[in-house]
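S1.2 Input.
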Amino acid sequence: MISLLEAQLKIIPEMSALLHTRYRFLQMIEMLGPIGRRGLAEQLSLAEREVRKETDLLREQGLIVASRSGMRVSEIGKELVEVLRPLVYEWSGISTMEKQLTHIFGIQNVIIVDGDLDTVPSIKSLLGLEAAKQLELVAKKSKVVAVTGGSTLAAMADSLIPSEDLTNLCFIAARGGMGDDMRLQANTIAANFANNTDNQYRSLYLPEHLSETSYNVIMQEPMVREMIQLYDRTDVVIHGIGSAIEMAIRRESSEKVIKTLREKGAVSEAFGYYFDEQGNIVQRIRTVGIQLDQVNKCKSIIAVAGGKDKAKAILSYFKHAAKQSVLVTDSAAAKEMLHLLQ
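S1.3 Output.
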């Protein structure tokens, strides 16, 4: 005998898509509010007319409240988001994809948020929010948390607030400086993690890529030796996963280096290591930051990466990822990964 839910979907097949749409509106307003219609339209990559139609309905139902400062979710709306989440994830196939990828990768867990980071900017905030929840789950038994740079981890820092689960921690930069945008540097993000949760932090004020001579000299510095000791004692690592060539360009690598990476079939990058499609290390940069063997010894590893275009890089990295890893990604990347694995 079919269930009540299956019966409802049979007779009202459009119910699933409609519920999914309105759930997504509530979820985004809860996360970004107070926010105006135009801002919400930009975040969802939708026409303002469509946003007006849906938000008017949500307001009439008492699920959102509108004021001069913008729209926010009501208390009833917040409760509804929590109640509906398992149902929406089941209908959309997200729960099934989470189980499939967790089994394929052989890791602790895969968490999927709905959307495509490549086309909807606000998905980055959702990824950050889910990653923040994962950190809270493991932080009680941790003391040292290493974080890399990047826009997704910057969004995660914005999602953190003081909490009983996030106390007596030291956030440390997992690598030196890379690129020109200070907001996305590991040092800045480690500081934001600490400031937003009332904890301490330690920075690594060095360029990520060093010549052999500079590397040998700097490794003798007391500050660097202290950071290496902290890496050895790290309990949690939070990191992104980059596409190999894109990361090489961000590092302003030479044409010769980029050509070599292409010839070696480099697909992904993390911690200064470049991996091919099978997850083999094909090249690494000389860096003072945390090393892969130190990462693999940590109690918990949280990887955050999304977008359909990042699917190949995520697959590459997770070919040999540590079993204690949790991946936080989006549904577009998850669908593409499963498609590539067929």
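S1.4 Remarks. The mean pLDDT is 88.
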